[in-house]
Amino acid sequence: MSSQWTQAHVPDQHGRVAVVTGANTGLGFETARVLAEHGATVVLAVRDIAKGRAAAARIHGDVTVQELDLTSLESVRSAVAELRAEHPRIDLLINNAGVMYTPKQTTHDGFEMQFGTNHLGHFALTGLLLDHLLPVPGSRVVTVSSTGHRIRAAIHFDDLQWDRSYSRTAAYGQAKLANLMFTYELQRRLASRGTTVAVAAHPGVSNTELVRNAPAPLRVVADRVAPLVTQSAAMGALPTLRAATDPAVLGGQYYGPGGLGEVRGHPEVVASSPQSYDADIQQRLWDVSEELTKVEFPV
User: Considering 101, 172, 254, 255, which one is annotated as catalytic?
Assistant: First the structure.
């Protein structure tokens, strides 16, 4: 498989509808921009409508803005109702939005912020929109994970919301590991349908705003080191774009930069951590996620 896949390899997207979360900045913006420039109808699903409209104005193509706050299940349900009314079919759902290394906070529904936003919000969004993808041949759910799924990462079923103690790094690791486990379990459930597939991607180390919540010493280091080791948001978006558009993609694959340590480079199929493939934990996480969000999937 070529290691030089670029934006130029994105096939024509005319006639396809793509919903991209967190699309007003960084990786999400670059993903939405490329899809729109290749002909897709793109929905920027964002928390801040003003920022979403400003982003939409910078993109050439058929672009609309949808308010979506992944920290609120009420907002997720409201957004889904509007998306379903506006778009009878959806070809691409790209679960890109995320927060990283936040101080101890909870979502509107009382979930730990990183787990609630990165995993549970997207879990609910996907479950509520999935019946608009299932009838569409070639439709995909692409969920963005991170190399952080390897760092101090585990699914802490005994304390999912970090009530007893809190580590920004470990909580982020849990959330990004959950993104992968969700993808793999979703693909197992979709496999018999033969239309929709679930795929994961990660951007390597990209120069985006995601680190803004990190402790001050880490931000200082990141600011100094970033130009030396990171890649642009446009490059970081390529694994997501390949997962979303490459005709050769298979359900359950994971795309990331092909360079040393998956830090940077052109997108290739990569492997995730051994524990991410544990089917028993995947299924247990799925059951808990359905219980917490009150969302049941049609698969």
Answer: 172
Active site residue 255: no
The residue type at 15: G
What class, spelled out in words, does domain 13-293 have in CATH?
alpha beta
Q: Residue 130 gets which letter from DSSP?
A: G
What pLDDT digit, counting tens, does each position of 194-240 carry?
A: 999 999 999 999 765 555 555 555 545 445 555 556 899 999 999 99
- C-beta of residue 76 within 8 angstroms of C-beta of residue 68: yes
The secondary structure of 213-279 as a DSSP string is GS-HHHHHHHHHHHHHH-B-HHHHTHHHHHHHH-TT--TT-EEEE-SGGGSSSSEEE----GGGG-H
pLDDT digits (tens, 9 = 90+) for 69-113: 999 999 999 999 999 999 999 999 999 999 999 999 999 999 999
Q: Give the residue extent of every domain in the chain.
A: 13-293
